[in-house]
Amino acid sequence: xxxxxVTNGVVMKKPMALILQGGGALxxxxxxxxxALLEDGWTPTAVTGVSIGAINAASIAGAKDGDIAAxxxxxxxxxxxxxxxWLPASKQANLSLLGNPNFWLSRTDYWRLPYWNSCCTxxxxxxxxxxxxxxxxxxxxxxxRFGVTATSLYTGGQTTFSNHVAKGAHTDxxxxxxxxxxxxxxxxxxxxxxxxxxxxxxxxxxxYWDGGLFSNTPIDALLNLLEPHEIDTLPIFxxxxxxxxxxxxxxxxxEVQTRATALxxxxxxxxxxxxxAKLEGFLAMLDKLESATAGTAVADMPAYDWLMRLRALKNLxxxxxxPAAAGGDHDFSEYGVRSxxxxxxxxxxxxxxxxxxxxxLRAAA
Length: 365
Fold this sequence. Notes:
Elements: E1 4-7, E2 10-20, H1 27-39, E3 42-49, H2 52-61, H3 68-79, E4 105-106, E5 120-121, H4 123-132, H5 135-138, E6 145-152, E7 158-162, E8 176-180, H6 185-191, E9 201-203, E10 206-210, H7 219-223, E11 236-240, H8 253-265, H9 278-293, H10 302-309, E12 316-320, H11 334-355, H12 359-364
Parallel strand pairs: 2-3, 2-11, 3-6, 7-8, 11-12
Antiparallel strand pairs: 1-2, 4-5, 6-7, 6-10, 9-10
Helix pairs in contact: 1-3, 1-11, 2-3, 4-6
Domain PNPLA: 18-223
Pfam families: Patatin
Active site: 51 (nucleophile), 210 (proton acceptor)
């Protein structure tokens, strides 16, 4: 793995931040993207994730001996189902609905069916995370700043559990709370506790569901990990697993369900800023606002501080997946995982090839 660029004999790091969405087996696309970024010399300094993105993020921050590529490979080998030799590859996509031994198991206590509040147990994933990751390292912000987001059943909003809260971060935004915590496998599983398949995960007396139910793109969580000097310069890579534009209308029930899922979990972050001016106009306004209010009482207001933190949005680089095939979010077959991994790696390589022609990114790196 190449982790540095060498310019005129001087070794230069290429730091980045990562935002990883949820999407079940589609997370193999993220695995491919991260692999390509590592191969190009990028080094994560801060990473946030939701659901399968939380598992990928944990595999990065908790990589044993710091070998991120090997850590992600081991994790995906653990949760990929073995191939059934006599069954065509195209027919193995739905096998995980019967269970995934290192991820979840279907419940068998049918005599208690009237009292079920989930169809599966996620106990296997707790063991998988504990076995494959270094949680001492994962909890060390000097190694990588790390956070995962879950939806609180008490507040109805998001809670981000992280190993670091940056100077100037906002820990209570009403519907989004940031909590400095010693992270355990339970925090990772909480981020992916998607009902009704998976049960809620209890942490410190509060039950949590999948963070993607509230927002599947945890940008706010990442912003709270950034130190002030990084806001203007640190490249932030977002992996978008649910592109929704330009697709034909679904014609089968499975296609309908796939599209409905994509619409639920698509990236909505851009719609919050700028109105007709869009994100570019919002960022231009922030620049003018900073110039106009420097040294005034306005600059000391907490709300102003958060607005200035949003300047980091200019550093976003979105690597988008192609639309998922029907049922792709539960396709943990060897064929399905390998296909999504290769697609993610190719998409990142193509994106990086375009970025290499942009002097601004090279300077920021």
